[in-house]
Here is the input.
Amino acid sequence: MKRSLTYGMITVLLWSTMAPVVKVVLGEIPSLEALTVGSVLAFLFLLVLNCAQGRIRKLRDYRPRQFLAMAGLAVIGLFLYHALYYRGLTELTVQEACIANYMWPVMIVVFSMIILKEKMTFVKGQAMLCSFAGVIILSAGGAGAPGNRLLGLVCCFGAAVLYGLFSVLNKKCDYDQNISMMIFWLVTAVCSAIAGPLTETWVPIRGLQWLGMLWIGIGSNAVAYLLWALALRGVENTAVVANLAYLTPFLSVLLSAIFLKEEIRPRAILALVLIVGGILVQNLWEGKGLRDRNDERSS
Here is the structure.
């Protein structure tokens, strides 16, 4: 249990650095170029790891149709998600982009009802309204970054919708996560490598810029995913670890204030509290309901 919590906390710290680091990197490197390089690094890391663990043999268990399904998931949940999120980061402050993007857990609930036929409950409805209220408050705020604020918010919210859809479809498909994530990053690298030169002018990556790319590709993408999987696998009650993820946007806002000198706006914090609070209340309530049902069965 202690080891799982340690893995979870390390993962949250890695994820919380993603938005600030990407914001700095995108100030010098075009977004799809950064996505291409980061995806290649993540793929290579997972390829080496899967080979070392002997998991690479599992590729023989999948048919062409399943590989095509994985490719489709990669386009939705990694390529388009990151392309939109990176664009949002170029138009917004880190705190605005991170908060707007954190609607993805709400989108998981929405698509779970549509695709997995899960039931809408009163608590779910109230939690969703609370989170959407947070987005409205964030959208109504004053300008924080010099970019196109409306475009940035639309991109970040669109990214959240796509990642919610990806999460539900990925759960339904139930592939080996180590293998599928490796393929996801490969497909993302290919897609961004094709789309990038058509839409932007790429530049040479030099010196310290490579440190940022290595941190994004290996740290935030590959290592964070693996540690999160280990953290969830090591506990019986996954909610104990999963709820740690809600620290991510708060830490991202704090890091952006410390290292990027961004002003922490009260309106943004209120929006963040509403969004994360709605999601967390729903999870805690459903976790309590599950424990109550288990107690009734055991009695």
Observations:
- DSSP finds twelve helices and no strands in the chain.
- The chain has a mean pLDDT of 86.
- Residues 2-298 form one domain.
- Residues 266-298 form the longest helix (33 residues).
